Sequence to fold (185 residues):
Amino acid sequence: MGENKQRMLAGDWYLPDDPELAADSERRFALCTAYNADGGAALPERETILAELLGSVGPGVRIRPPFQCDFGYHIGIGEGTFVNFGAVFLDVAPITIGAHCQFGPNVQLLTPSHELDAERRREGWEKGAPITIGDNVWLGGGVIVCPGVTIGDDTVVGAGAVVTRDLPAGVLAVGNPAKVIRTPA
Fold:
């Protein structure tokens, strides 16, 4: 395994312009293209493609095409989860999604961060921080989850929210940045 892939997997700064990472991205591109073809392959074929593309897929997972990711192999999705049209999961770090979650259209789970220093940013340095979504979470349409965020079980995030910090279990959060507006009784 090359140095940049090792650095990426360790959550360290790495350069994504790397032949090994490019090969991984080409694999992802071919699988996503097949998955998304003509509005989506037939269900049995989509299940086979997801099993090859993603790190783990629980039974009954449904992802409506189009679906895009960086690599796929860093994504684990629990049983019975539904992901609506237009999802983008940038998985340079692990993305762990619990069981029985519901994602509205155009949800984005974004693990990469880029350098704040302009010179290093021009050089292409980036790193990732994992995203963890608990069981029974509902992310409304257009929700964006930023690097390093954990969302607790049974939490609801309103449409269009940008989640920049961890959210506890069982709350309702809305806005940009997302703020808890209701806690468990």
Residues 49 and 130 are 23 Å apart (CA to CA). The mean pLDDT is 95.
